[in-house]
Design goal:
By secondary structure, the protein is mostly beta strands. Strand 1 and strand 2 form a beta hairpin. The chain is 0% helix and 20% strand. It contains no helices and three strands.
């Protein structure tokens, strides 16, 4: 599963873990998150998240 991070504040999104506190269950693919979703830390739009490889 892929990982992404906010290009502004580096908030991570891991498809395997999801964001249960934000209503996104574990296993949710990035493509399945609504396009109008924003970073819960800083409000940056989903379109400005970047793929992340640890």
């Amino acid at each position: 599963m892929a990982q992404y991070q906010c290009s502004a504040c580096f908030f991570p999104y891991n498809e395997e873990l999801g964001l249960p506190d934000e209503g996104i269950p574990p296993g949710t693919r990035w493509e399945d998150i609504p396009d109008d979703w924003v970073c819960p830390e800083c409000g940056t739009p989903k379109s400005l998240f970047i793929a992340y490889t640890p």
